[in-house]
Amino acid sequence: MAEENSQNGGGDSQAAGQQNQQQLQFAVQRVYVKDISFEAPNSPAVFQQPFKPKVGVDLNSSSQKVGDDLYEVTLKVTAQVTHSEEGTTSFLAEIEQAGLFRISGIEGSQLEHTLGAFCPNMLFPYARECIDNLVNRGGFPPLMLAPVNFEAIYAQKKKRAAEQAQQDAGGQTTQ
């Protein structure tokens, strides 16, 4: 009888663990390009001089709930290359790489972290490849963007938001 009870007890906790795992879901539904742009405003003159690039990259991500447990995350990457001596724009490549993610069982700060760091990290390789392809098709040497630490970017964003909230709260109490 004691063996029977311990087997049932073990089974119940195992079933509870499986139920928790079934409730937590994360799946990529689709990865797609939402917007894409390439401009070489100073061509063909830019091809008639030595290529001395100065690269500027801007990253931004956003997310929105689009259905039950369905979220769209968009990673916007802008790469602007100017001539390092003249300051003229060689090219501007911009992409909005997006993805649909089915997420359930994750809430609050964990969901915010998933949407703000984990999902953009998954989208970045697609955006990086697309930017490189655009630049090559524009007649320029490859532009392989360096890996990005979205965890650090997310942490900095949260820190700035907390500092801003503190300043706003401090400003309200002194008025």
Automatic annotation (TrEMBL):
UniProt keyword Transcription, yes or no: no
Gene Ontology terms for molecular function: unfolded protein binding
Single biological process term from Gene Ontology: protein tetramerization
Intracellular or extracellular location(s): Cytoplasm
Keywords: Chaperone, Cytoplasm, Protein transport, Translocation, Transport
GO cellular component: cytoplasm
Gene3D superfamilies tied to this protein: SecB-like
Location of region: Disordered: 1-22
InterPro entries: SecB (IPR003708), SecB-like_sf (IPR035958)
Secreted among keywords: no
Cleaved signal peptide residues: none
Stored Pfam families: SecB (PF02556)
Compositionally biased residues, Low complexity: 13-22
Family from the record: Belongs to the SecB family.
Function according to Swiss-Prot or TrEMBL: One of the proteins required for the normal export of preproteins out of the cell cytoplasm. It is a molecular chaperone that binds to a subset of precursor proteins, maintaining them in a translocation-competent state. It also specifically binds to its receptor SecA.
Quaternary data: Homotetramer, a dimer of dimers. One homotetramer interacts with 1 SecA dimer.
Xref: NCBIfam families: PRK05751.1-4 (NF004393), secB (TIGR00809)
Name of the protein: Protein-export protein SecB
Species of provenance: Billgrantia gudaonensis
